[in-house]
Design brief:
- The complex is a heterodimer of chains A (409) and B (298).
- With 409 residues, chain A is mainly alpha-helical.
- Chain A is 69% helix and 5% strand.
- Chain A contains 18 helices and 4 strands.
- With 298 residues, chain B is an alpha/beta fold.
- The chains are: A mainly alpha (409), B alpha/beta (298).
Chain lengths: 409, 298
Amino acid sequence: MNKFFVIVSHTYKHRLKSKAFIITTLLVLTAILVMTNIQTIMDTFTGEEGEDYTIAIIAKEPSASTLVSSLPEGEWFDGGEEEGKDAVRSGEYEALLVVEEQENGLPEGQYYTEQLTSSSASEVRQALQQLKTSIAVEQENLSEETLTAITSPVAFERTALEEGAKSEEELNQARVIVYIMLFVMYFAVIMYGNIIATEVTTEKSSRVMEILISSVSPVTQMFAKITGIAILGLTQFLLFILAGYVGITLADTSQGSLIQMAGLSDVDWGIIGYAVLFFILGYFLYATLAAMLGSLVSRVEDAQQTVTPMMMLIIVAFFLAISALGSPEATYITITSYIPFFTPFVMFTRIGVIDVALWETLLSIGILLTTIFVLGVIGARIYRGGVLMYGKSSLGKNIREALQLSKKE
Amino acid sequence: MLKLQNVTKTFGDFTAVDDLSLEIPEKQMFGFLGANGAGKTTTFRMILGLMDQTGGEISWNDQHIGYDKSHLIGYLPEERGLYPKLKVEDQLVYLAKLRGMKKSESVPEIRKWLDRFKVPEYRLKKIEELSKGNQQKIQFISAVLHKPKLLILDEPFSGLDPVNVEMLKAAVVELKEGGTSIVFSSHRMEHVEQLCESLCIMHKGKPVLKGGLKDIKRSFGKKNVRIVADFDLSFLENHGQILHYRHTKEGALCQVREEKDAQILFEALQGRGFVRQFILEEPSLEEIFIEKVGEAYE
């Protein structure tokens, strides 16, 4: 057992100190902090920009003064249309707005900018719309109440009757967080799966494997390696969650902010808990598979190729989970959530989005654990033979050969 | 005592080791000879428990060799390899830990061995920066660092220059004198002849010859007579007592069955001229090997 921990700590420390790990972790941490604070960052930039442009307005009174007062950047332009255009071309003004009165007394606007990509138009259009409405209301002698009655949106609230079902708002929030966690899981499983497969193959190709297996049983070795990388993965996972937490704490979480709308201001830690649980289970499932596959090839270049079928499974699982976000109650989603290779993704999504009975969760975890155990036993046998096997042949043939090499008596 | 009883290993239809029985006494050096593919490495792997034998028993001091004994066993595999990216010392410390040796114990030992092999400057270098021969020395250190009781060396001297071969040989002899039982394989007969008390010659998985070096030579039933003379010796070519005749630069090398035949040969030389040398030699292991393995081929 002692040697188990020697390998665990060696694998963990060695990887922790590797440049690749440090760089990816730092990059992702930065990305998380930036993403959670994207609004503040954007505001910082647009805030500065907002002040230094003005829009020239050519209009008759009283429209002119209404527009100038409702548009902070607006400025009454004393001159003809052509002069105004020249002023825009020379960069004196960001844009020129020419307001004409139609026959029915309503205003119409012509907006001139250097490029159509200018972002100022929508604001101006809105101001003009308001102006038009107020003129129209005045013309028809409508009261304020009538206006409000016409324009205000209809009240429409959806309520789920099933007990414990999430409200519309909660559902959207849950989707965001589940989506984020799915992505993290997806990349983590692919990344760590690859790390394990290459690590095993590296030991084989450098032939250090034979010394290792003469000191420690290949089975201990395989599980120690998987555990070492698991701790590494958890370290990274926790760092990310921590960064997410810090980022959200720092971010503007007031009403109407991006974070608040995404439902991240009030994170459901239960979902994070499930994410960690399914991450660990999914990791062990795929890591065992990766170690087994990695032990079958002898060159690092071939490792990539052998894990391809596994990657396919992960990709399918991921896409199933994405579609489960939209239709969590579909029959095929329910069925696939019990297939162990898909459970970590699909069942997690179901739990995140809808209310799943506890027995369903436990059953899927049970199936998953059993599969991990069975794969562990088979994987260990293949690994035991595979690590002594050199040369190249097809996957199926390699598996048969590895099993034969590890055969007892 | 390492004991192999009727050990057999088959891979599908192929028999790698066929009914091998051996007794390797304690504190001895045992040579394992055989052409490529004779089953040496497979035998080692079975002794170490890396593979299970198809049939037969392997025991060491009447006990099964399992991973619980790995701290007593040292192994230098034929295929050399270490972690290319790890530093020499880190690597040795890690491998020693896996053999149950604490870092505080292994570090001074590592320095001692590096000094002994005259490579102390490599301590903090990465393995991939070392030459192949030096990597081999490091790997040898990893096999002996934890002072094993049973040391298995698969082709320990291949790929080394003569100076390093001598250095390693001296280390191996010292270990043996310190009480380690050593089993080693080689293609190089002179190494086995110099170092081993007993040996086994394998061919296609079968032991064709085994026992003490002296007994093997004696029981081989053939001796060499080396003659250096001033006259032409070719008349001996068809002499009845000579099994095999070979011209050498200065004379001839003849193979005879026993000492008596050498005497007859000696008499036949009388009166023909001056004989500078007439030596009766034990056969070399190489001759025995070639003949035994050659026989097995026929």
